[in-house]
Design a protein that fits this description.
This protein is an all-alpha fold. It contains 4 helices and no strands. The protein starts with 7 loop residues before the first helix and ends with a helix.
């Protein structure tokens, strides 16, 4: 996989495509959502992924113009979705299932970028993968915070 990342632009294209896939996945799930609340949450997640894509496109443009990558400090990890199995996303899915599914998806994306950073020989590529991993951890934190607020407190 590392051979397909010859430039920062290649890395950005890969990351942008992953955001597009995530947005499409949430849109498809929203079409089959059994309740209006779940559909709205899925559409919000789709919009978040579209916003992530826009941010990556802006970063790609700035990087192409020679701007340095922004830094992200450590990201808190609540770990709320780590120990539970990934739920089936079907017509019986609940808000809890959705939040766990989405948080675990973001965790997998963060792990992928962290692995790519560890294997990257080029310092610029490594920095970019580290940034992408941190952004995915921020997305996971947002979802787990919503899980804590809407599921744990209500139960």
């Amino acid at each position: 996989m590392m051979s397909e990342f010859r430039t920062a632009a290649d890395i950005f294209r890969f990351a942008i495509a992953r955001e597009e896939e995530a947005a499409a996945s949430y849109a498809a799930l929203a079409e089959d959502a059994p309740t209006a609340g779940l559909r709205d949450m899925l559409l919000d997640l789709r919009a978040d992924e579209a916003e992530h894509k826009r941010r990556l496109e802006a970063l790609a443009s700035a990087a192409a113009a020679g701007a340095p990558l922004p830094g992200l400090g450590p990201v808190e990890d609540l770990g709320l979705s780590d120990a539970v199995p990934d739920p089936d996303m079907n017509e019986a899915a609940t808000m809890q299932d959705l939040l766990i599914h989405a948080a675990r998806k973001e965790a997998r994306a963060a792990a992928l970028y962290a692995e790519l950073a560890a294997r990257a020989a080029d310092p610029e590529a490594r920095s970019l993968f580290v940034l992408l991993a941190a952004q995915e951890r921020v997305h996971k934190l947002k979802l787990e915070t919503a899980y804590e607020r809407h599921v744990l407190i209500e139960n």
